[in-house]
Amino acid sequence: MTLTFVPHREDSLPLHLVDKPGLAALVDRLDPAQRAWVEASGFEAGLGKVLMVPGHDGGHALALVGHGDEAKRARQRFGFAKARAALPAGTFHLVSNLEGAELEEAALGWLLAGYRFARYKDAPGPKAGLIAPAGVDAARLEAIAAGEALTRDLINTPASDMGPDELEDAARALAARFGAHLAVTAGDDLLAANFPMIHAVGRASPRAPRLIDLAWGDTGPRLTLVGKGVCFDSGGLNLKPGTSMGLMKKDMGGAATVLGLARMIMALDLKLQLRVLIPAVENAISGNAFRPGDVLTSRKTLTVEINNTDAEGRLVLADALAYADEERPDLLISMATLTGAARVAVGADLAPFYSTEPKLSDALRTVAGRVADPVWEMPFWTPYEEMIEPGIADLDNAPSGGMAGSITAALFLRRFVTQTPAYGHFDIYGWQPADAPARPKGGVGQGARALLAALPEVLGL
């Protein structure tokens, strides 16, 4: 993968990013032969469209990339990134009127367009290289792209090669790279350490459940990220149909996303104390699997009636959140591929989030568009609390009725965060259903860039 900018070269070709008015002005400045070439090509500066313009020596003199119109750009993020695959091998430098957030989006999109998942077969990437445009923080964008690539790689890897062991290995490699501390509690040790629901969900698999605990930094505000690490979700005894099981390798997308965000934070050396907690399990079936009708006692001592073993993510998150809450961090975030209801509500492109902290909500709304990482706030709607309260236990893991499924799941999680005022929860999809600019079909990070951009405002960095 080529997720970095290339070094400066004096012989790099100009890459002109032009909309229709800009195209007309540029064509007027070309020599007659080049002007005739552009006019004969029918190039109209459509978003991401490419035209190579020859020089007098028979080689290329410059490249044109269409920037489309405002309406097209509003409907498609990273439109400039489409050009990368269409450009020939070579080194280019960007010529444009972009600045600020628009320039950053173009530059980051270029980097992300270099991503390929090549673990199981060759997947050649684009051959064109771009010199970092003036006006962008190249190191920051490269760190963000590397974090996103980590998230995508983890999600794209099938469960045969990405179980709790391998997820731990990924966290361990990340910790080693950035000098973080890693502790892991696994198997029956989870019971001794009072993580009963993580143990209950994962005990049916021969791949031992575990809680992965990464810590980095010793000064500044405290940020804790909790990511759902269900490495494969069969549904348990409430077995999923085959059509619903096909994408369940991505059910650790929350864990993948917090690890990607953690990589960004550590690579950028943000002045904070970071903790990452990942309950890593496989929701499998065997004689000792937890059952519908069981009542589990959580780390927080709240009892939970199991009305569907396929609503397991909130169970493992609950123990991890309760543990995180005991430390009372300045900001606590959970990320999970938690409910299909969230996807029904907002589709695959938006990352819905819930927040108890107005400063977090305001910051996310402000920065999400700027960093091309769309989010949408959903309500912690307190009147729905009674929907998660069954008759024989404190909580119900799968309320009947099919209403407000994402909200009731978020309310369930909020019950386990009682000492930390600033809590945010993301109910992400973690999957790109079809190829899009800078986002090939497959695993994708959601919400991480928006959170990264929001941290200075929320934590006072």
Envelope shape? elongated
So what's the CATH class of the largest domain? Answer: Alpha Beta
| Class based on secondary structure composition and strand pairing | alpha/beta
Please provide the count of β strands: 19
Q: What count of helical segments does DSSP give?
A: 16
Radius of gyration: 24 Å
CATH homologous superfamily grouping of the largest domain: Zn peptidases
Taking the alpha carbons of the first and last residues, their distance comes to 32 Å
Largest sheet: 9 strands, mixed
CATH second-level architecture of the largest domain: 3-Layer(aba) Sandwich
- Hey, roughly how much beta strand do the residues contain? 15-25%
Mean pLDDT across all amino acids:
97
In CATH terms, what is the fold-level topology of the largest domain? Aminopeptidase
Please estimate the helix content. 25-40%
Number of domains: 2
Low-pLDDT residue intervals, each spanning 5 or more residues: none
Describe the structure.
The chain is of the alpha/beta class. It has two domains: 13-136, Leucine Aminopeptidase, subunit E, domain 1 (3-Layer(aba) Sandwich); 142-459, Aminopeptidase. 35% of the residues lie in helices and 20% in strands. The chain is built from 16 helices and 19 strands. It has helices at residues 20-29, 32-41, 70-75, 82-86, 100-112, 138-156, 164-178, 189-192, 196-202, 242-245, 253-267, 313-326, 340-346, 358-368, 405-414, 448-459; strands spanning 13-18, 50-54, 60-66, 90-95, 128-130, 181-186, 210-216, 222-227, 229-233, 273-283, 295-297, 303-305, 331-336, 351-355, 375-377, 395-396, 423-427, 431-432, 442-443. The strands form four sheets. Strands 6, 7, 8, 9, 10, 13, 14, 15 and 17 form a nine-stranded mixed beta sheet that branches. A five-stranded mixed beta sheet has the order 2-3-1-4-5. The model has no long low-confidence stretch (mean pLDDT 97). InterPro entries: Leucine_aapep/pepB, Macro_dom-like, Peptidase_M17_C, Peptidase_M17_N_1. It holds the Pfam family Peptidase_M17_N_1. Keywords: Aminopeptidase, Hydrolase, Manganese, Protease.
